[in-house]
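Tokens as discussed.
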């Protein structure tokens, strides 16, 4: 069983978050610590000037609220929720190192041709993580 699991979730991907959280809970054996992470892409400076800081703050707060609701629905404390701003794969890897995760559980879509040329977030995390990475790809139930 894993003691410290990072679960990156994109709330926009709907039920995938609940599925990968369930996998993480099974891998923890009910005794490990699970940290839910969502990464909000950084807004380029030339756009943020027009958007304003209040909209960015609201976007981060909405992402946190969605993750906290998911955490609560699965019996996790709100303290298990982390919201970061940045690039997805690098932020996931940084957070895993920060919390000393011994596993990362994330979801992935089925790869297509563009993934072989560019690489998906999941592929980059798998290639560069310093811990076990579980990629959940089951079909929605």
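Sequence:
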């Amino acid at each position: 069983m894993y003691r410290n699991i990072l679960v990156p979730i994109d709330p926009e991907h709907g039920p995938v978050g609940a599925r990968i959280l369930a996998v993480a809970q099974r891998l923890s054996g009910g005794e490990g610590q699970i940290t839910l992470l969502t990464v909000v892409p950084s807004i380029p400076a030339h756009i943020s000037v027009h958007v304003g800081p209040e909209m960015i703050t609201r976007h981060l707060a909405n992402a946190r609220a969605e993750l906290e609701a998911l955490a609560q629905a699965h019996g996790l404390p709100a303290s298990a929720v982390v919201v970061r701003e940045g690039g997805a794969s690098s932020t996931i890897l940084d957070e895993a190192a920060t919390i000393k995760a011994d596993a990362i559980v994330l979801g992935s879509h089925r790869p297509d041709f563009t993934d072989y040329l560019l690489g998906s977030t999941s592929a980059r995390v798998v290639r560069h993580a310093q811990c076990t990475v579980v990629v959940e790809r089951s079909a929605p139930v």
